Amino acid sequence: MQPDRPEIIRRRVKLDYANAPAEAWSNWGPQFENMLGAISFLLPVGERFFIKSLRHYLPKINDPKLREQAEQFIFQEVMHTREHERSNAELTKVHRYGPWIERMADITLKFHSYTSFKSMQLATTCAMEHFTAIIANDLLRHQVAFRESSDPALATLWLWHAVEETEHKAVCFDVYETVCGKGLFAYLNRVMAMGMVTLMLVAAMIIGFQVVGRKQRGKDGKAPATRPKLSALARSVSGRMYFDYYRRSFHPWDHDNMALVDEWKRHYADLGIPKAHAQTEQPEPAAAG
């Protein structure tokens, strides 16, 4: 039986990065910082793709509850896009090749949009959302240590994003099963998309880690060892959670981590917007990717 799901809350967030260092912002070291930096440069393009793939199916969602959840998902992803664009502007001061990662992701996802069916694009979004939910779960498991060892603004950014990825982790999946069904074809389409996304993300991370870790050589002619290792990211990806996706009966809330969301809310209560206010807030649409 699936657990009660958390409310998908509309939080209008605008963090102050003026005093946040673009590097040396976490005691967990430069490789960890650059790993999150590479992911951050990928996120705005990816989130626009998520929004576009889900928005296409909004007219086909007849269940008012699921329709509301889909709209909440879009709101949250719009906010994630904006905040990572703002933080990326600061990161670019240190990682001048960072925008190249964004262009690479943009070209890849536009090609996918032009060459695949809408159902495959939604299945791709489901697979990517599963990856973000897995990584978010790992970060939230260590949220106290991460918060205490990192710059406050950047810790808030990543933990807020992780919580909202958890809150809405089942939305695209539920929409997919609503519009594409639960039959054999829908299942095969879903797992094929996961296989493709896995290969695509591994390639993107290998390239992104090389790019974001690139630094000017020192006086001794040696480049500092700041390039993240793929193995470090792999340790954040639970094998059980990943392979569960290939089960035909899988659902994102088979893994109940609501306690981690509740733990975050206790510390960041000021980022929770009251329901009455949340229902009236409307973000401007994100630009289509």
Summarize, please.
This protein is an all-alpha fold and 289 residues long. It has helices spanning 30-55, 64-91, 98-115, 118-141, 143-148, 152-167, 171-180, 184-212, 230-234, 239-244, 258-267, 275-278. It has one domain.
SSE topology:
Layout (H helix, E strand, L loop, with lengths): L29 H26 L8 H28 L6 H18 L2 H24 L1 H6 L3 H16 L3 H10 L3 H29 L17 H5 L4 H6 L13 H10 L7 H4 L11
Helix pairs in contact: 1-2, 1-3, 1-4, 1-8, 2-6, 2-7, 3-8, 4-6, 4-7, 4-8, 6-11
Provide a descriptive summary of the structure in words.
The protein is an all-alpha fold and 289 residues long. The protein has one domain. It is built from twelve helices and no strands. The radius of gyration is 19 Å and the shape is globular. It starts with 29 loop residues before the first helix and ends in an 11-residue tail after the last helix.
Tally of individual domains: 1
The fraction of residues in strands falls at: under 5%
Helix content: 55-70%
Q: What is the ordering of alpha helices and beta strands? A: HHHHHHHHHHHH
Q: Let me know the largest β-sheet.
A: none
* Gyration radius over CA: 19 Å
> What is the molecular shape?
globular
State mean pLDDT (0 to 100 scale): 87
Oligomer: single chain
Distance between the termini: 37 Å
